[in-house]
Amino acid sequence: MRCNYINWYLATYLISAFLADLTSIFFHHPKILMYCNLFYLVSYLSLLGFVLTKFKGIRFGMLLGVYLVVVFVINTYLLYQLYTVLDGIIKNPIMVMFFGLHTVTLVILAFVSFAVYLNSDTKSSILYLVMALCFIFSKVLFYIRNYYIYDWSLVLIELFLYSGGLIFLFYYMVNKNKAKKRAQKIRSYNFVFAKQKEQQQVLKQ
């Protein structure tokens, strides 16, 4: 199936994520690792920028809004605790900074995606939310297994989550492409119907 629903945000993500995955092969090279982290940051910012275009403001109740804030604060606190642990392990302060930027961007991405889902409650918003959750957990596992505890099970889970995020993003684009085609078909039907109605009115006159 051809997927025409790729705007410049998603195109930027696909390019930067590809470059990040490519440079991650040279993980032990400090300079290349810096570029790898930069590409990942650009990819996450692209996803965040895209979902912000779908965010139309808060349209749910106060109770649910308070729940979202509490969840956001708890997640931020847990990631801060992980940040403090990694700060004592990672010797390069730039890598620690990238960890902070990555996690903050992904937490905001998940938070906004959840808000968009609550506002729209569509299949596309669910796919995007699950994608965001897959990326944030895979990134946390990436730092844990590289700088704290290395275990093959963590590697497999991280790869599974990251691959799952890519798959959900693909299905998101496919789903949006189908919705766009349906909308175009409906508009064309409405246009033909309106023309036929005009012709009938002219004939009656």
UniProtKB/TrEMBL annotation:
Signal peptide, first to last residue: none
Keyword terms of this UniProt record: Membrane, Transmembrane, Transmembrane helix
Q: Which residues form a coiled coil?
A: none
Which residues span the membrane? 7-26, 32-52, 64-83, 95-118, 125-144, 150-174
Source taxon at top rank: Bacteria
- Protein name, UniProt field: Lysoplasmalogenase
According to its UniProt entry, this protein's organism is Formosa sediminum
